[in-house]
Amino acid sequence: MSYKTIRRQVISSAIASTISSAWLGIDSAHAAEDSLSAKFSRNKLYFGSAVRIEQVMAEQDLRAVVLRECDCLTPEVALKWDAVEASPGAFDFRSMDGLTNFALANKKQLHGHTLLWHKSIPHWAASSLVEKGGWTLVQRYFQAVLSRYGHAIAQWDVVNEPIETGHRMDGLRNSPFLQAFGVDYIARALWEARQLAPQAKLMINEFGLEYDLRVEHDRRYLFLKLLERLKHAGVPLDGVGLQAHLDLSKGVLPADVLGRFLKDIADLGLFIVISELDVKEYEYVLPVVQRDARVADETRRYLDVALGQPAVRGVTTWGLSDRHSWLRVTKDDFARYPDAWKDGSSPGVNRGLPFDYSFKPKPMYRAIAEADLRRR
Ligand code: XIL
């Protein structure tokens, strides 16, 4: 289907009040030669960010950076089940239509995040899933979003965060989905998605797979076993999202272990995307210059390994500026460093994204920008 046809379809199906050229956010500025988008695409990679369309439209500085730097946009919230179906059968597509129209108008790709996630089940659905016919609720939600966006969105996180250690030998999270539908729910969800969106690339997205910690070793092993089982059973799984929420309290990134893990995934015939990159800081008491250097170094270490793996197709950060980060400085962080933030840096703000609060690029931006040079 052509770009124009898709655009016409999505726009015509969008709710009329959201349609105006202002909402489309068309900007004549083209991506500059040295943008992350340009640099990454020279290496056949994409760069992207999670966004909320309401913020993109309301904040001009954010919009400019999205337009300049990103090839691919991930809805931070708008596609999640509790966001589109807050009450049974009453679908609200306004936010996702807005993002889709913005993306199509500005020639940005979209990453479909996320269908089944234990943290985004609408309240009303939680208890109904285990009742007889519970799967029809999943089907209705899949049908609604995949029939509306299946043509405009090339890749989908069908299942998010299915692994949890300490409960079961197979490492599957004891989620409402597992409780309601048994261990086959992942395969079932992937088949369902394949049927509704035959062209789309189908993925599983997971976190906590980076560090040299016992629990993360276990998570890597269990995740690989899950992928292996699905591939051997012929389940339609095309790719994997590695969230990469890096964390400076977790020690040194083990490059060799990480490299092998990525290769093991690639050897299963799966492509990989780095889907939610950001860095949680630890020593907030340090001068800002040092904090920013640490965040950048961690990013560099991770991307050096990740972009060395040819199966990796792109990198998405979970937001662009510290203003919008989902990472919060915790009570523990404050307790550890009561004197932090006395230097005038914004209190309570984690500096783990490429742009600061007022959209000045930080050393992390440079670490990402230079990552393309190191791609083999
Ligand atoms: C987060 C959003 O950033 C928050 O704004 C929202 O309240 C909860 O979800 N892993 C994921 C993302 O897969 O969907 C989460 O996003 C962050 C962790």
Order of strands in the sheet with most strands: 1-2-3-5-6-7-9-10
**Strand-residue proportion:** 5-15%
Shape: globular
The SSE string, one letter per element, is: HHHEHHEHHEEHHEHHEHEEHEHEHH
How do the strands and helices of this protein lay out in sequence?
Layout lengths: L2 H11 L7 H4 L11 H7 L3 E6 L1 H6 L1 H10 L2 E4 L5 H4 L9 H12 L3 E4 L3 E2 L5 H6 L5 H16 L5 E6 L15 H6 L3 H12 L4 E6 L7 H19 L6 E4 L2 E3 L7 H13 L3 E10 L7 H19 L5 E6 L13 H6 L26 H7 L7
Parallel strand pairs: 1-2, 1-10, 2-3, 3-5, 4-5, 5-6, 6-7, 7-9, 8-9, 9-10
The structure holds (3S,4R)-3-hydroxy-2-oxopiperidin-4-yl beta-D-xylopyranoside.
Summarize the structure.
The chain has helices at 3-13, 21-24, 36-42, 53-58, 60-69, 81-84, 94-105, 123-128, 134-149, 176-181, 185-196, 214-232, 255-267, 288-306, 331-336, 363-369; strands at 46-51, 72-75, 109-112, 116-117, 155-160, 201-206, 239-242, 245-247, 271-280, 312-317.
Tags for this model:
about 375 residues; alpha/beta; eight-stranded parallel barrel; 16 helices; about 15% strand; disordered N terminus; binds (3S,4R)-3-hydroxy-2-oxopiperidin-4-yl beta-D-xylopyranoside
